[in-house]
TrEMBL record:
GO molecular function: calcium ion binding
UniProt-listed InterPro entries: CALM/Myosin/TropC-like, EF-hand-dom_pair, EF_Hand_1_Ca_BS, EF_hand_dom
Protein's name according to its UniProt entry: Calmodulin
Native source species: Jimgerdemannia flammicorona
GO cellular component terms given for this protein: myosin II complex
Length: 183
């Protein structure tokens, strides 16, 4: 069920105009709504490949009238989170740097397997050796055996990359998913 209390964000005229233009790109048949198929097609053109379940959830999250499509006002709610300011991004980066510092116990600028295990234990999550191996294999994008800040950001956002040499089903490869150590 859609959240009927979802407030429409306050936007300036330029933002509304930009969203109207974007809405028209999504509403390919010009019927005034964005269907699941239209949402999938446009996201695919942006090199984004959400699953049908993720697309349905995106629609459900903003679909106030529960008709299975997105009208313009609902689209504004859906798109409001990407309209973050530079200040929002700077705040998020500062928060990620602070979190990274809790994992980078020796201050080297990277997180080793040992640091990952200790930091997670300090958070109340005793990772198994397999979970540590999978996490490191998934997020050590440059293959140096440690997780640097850029890789940490990918990990914290729950993004993954294909791992041809791993035979685990702890995370869905190549799609957004939670890190193997997150519930």
């Amino acid at each position: 069920m859609a959240d009927t209390d979802t407030a429409i964000p306050k936007l300036n005229g330029a933002q509304i105009k930009e969203l109207k233009e974007t809405f028209k790109q999504f509403d390919q048949n010009n019927d005034g709504v964005i269907s699941l198929m239209e949402l999938r097609e446009v996201m695919g053109s942006m090199k984004l490949r959400p699953s049908d379940e993720e697309l349905q959830q995106m629609i459900k999250d903003v679909d106030r009238n529960e008709n299975g499509t997105i009208e313009f006002e609902e689209f504004v709610v859906l798109m409001s989170s990407p309209l973050k300011t530079d200040e929002d991004h700077e705040t998020q980066d500062r928060e990620l740097h602070d979190a990274f510092a809790h994992f980078d116990l020796d201050g080297s600028g990277t997180i080793s397997k040992k640091e990952l295990k200790i930091a997670m234990a300090n958070l109340g999550d005793d990772m198994t050796p397999e979970q540590i191996r999978v996490t490191m294999n998934t997020y050590d994008l440059n293959g140096d055996g440690e997780i640097d800040f850029q890789e940490f950001k990918v990990m914290m956002r729950g993004e993954t990359r294909p791992q041809p040499n791993t035979s685990t089903s702890l995370s869905r490869r190549g799609s957004k998913s939670r890190p193997p150590w997150r519930p």
